[in-house]
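Why do we care about 3D structure at all? Because function follows from shape, and shape follows, mostly, from sequence. That is the central idea of this module. The next example makes it concrete: a single protein chain, its amino acid sequence, and then its structure expressed as tokens.
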Amino acid sequence: SPAEAGQVSFEMTVQNVDYTGLNSRTTLLEAFIAELKRVIAALVNLTSHHVQVALSEGSVKVSSRITPPPSSGVTAANIEAALNTGRESGSLNGDVAEGISGLAGIGEVKTGTISVSVTAPVVVTPESGVASRASANHAGA
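And the structure:
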């Protein structure tokens, strides 16, 4: 059902990249965002346009939200599981770090070896008022 689709959000920190420098280089910034989306989407078996990312300062903090289309058959729970596996095995962190390290021009904003830390993913269910809150009380079984 559409109510089950939900979204999954998580955060990453990309260490040793200068946020201000990155932000001032449009082409590099676009490539950086595209690479983040590509790696995340590949991990969860979706395409880049199902992944949103927002960057903020602090090395580079990445807030990501993944919205599976109902037609995909991929659920928020599938995405959460794939992200957790990628995070625990280090493949998500490693693939992001490797992808970003390989970007043309990244040397101009790199302050050391690029590494990535990832927070635990959180499933965000669509807000549908009282009904979703009531059903949330019964979730987790």
